[in-house]
Specification:
Elements lengths: L2 H28 L19 E3 L18 E3 H8 L3 H14 L14 H16 L3 H33 L4 H12 L9
Helix pairs in contact: 1-6, 2-3, 2-5, 3-4, 4-5, 5-6
């Protein structure tokens, strides 16, 4: 087998392995945080409340830490908007309830992120009594920050793989480029 084919296969294998890993991480972060069952000693912890950015992916790779699919912490959004976190959590819950699909989407269809973000921003602005443009800007800032976090985490993992000898620098660079171009998931869009 020629060295070009070996390199191509190596890059493809690395991209597939990374894509699968990111897919599993994405699935884990897509899991919604279960609501604790009430007990006499339990009290709700507002620091774990989440707001759904609908298209803003969580970027920490810890299932549910940043909410459901496209989740963002209610605390972060509340801070950006200058409102109480509980109000943001309630507003997002109302949005989720009102926009819950009645049937599962077809596997080949994907909702338009821009449309979903616009609907979320409009709903939150109305519920919180804030200008829609301010909500849209806050959601965009949080999404950009999450993308930067994901890119940094990917770079760290790839650097470690190169240091450990798992990947060559050329393979790591190819994976980075594939993520940046949207060929495989995990990077900015």
């Amino acid at each position: 087998m020629s060295s070009t084919k070996r390199i191509t296969l190596g890059i493809s294998a690395a991209a597939l392995a990374l894509g699968a890993g990111l897919g599993v991480t994405g699935m884990a972060s897509a899991a919604t945080t279960p609501t604790p069952s009430p007990s006499s000693t339990a009290s709700p912890d507002s620091s774990t409340g989440t707001a759904d950015g609908q298209g803003m992916r969580g970027g920490r790779g810890h299932g549910g830490e940043r909410g459901g699919p496209g989740g963002v912490r209610a605390a972060e959004l509340a801070t950006k908007l200058g409102v109480d976190e509980a109000k943001v959590t309630d507003a997002v819950k109302a949005y989720r309830d009102a926009n819950k699909p009645t049937t599962p989407p077809a596997e080949s269809t994907k909702p338009d992120r821009a449309t979903m973000e616009a609907a979320l921003a409009k709903s939150l602005a109305s519920s919180l009594g804030i200008e829609e443009s301010k909500v849209t800007a806050a959601l965009e800032e949080l999404r950009t920050s999450a993308q930067a976090d994901r890119a940094a985490a990917l770079k760290t993992k790839l650097d470690k793989a190169v240091t450990d000898g798992t990947l060559s620098q050329a393979e790591a660079d190819a994976v980075t480029k594939a993520v940046e171009k949207g060929v495989i998931g995990g990077g900015g869009r």
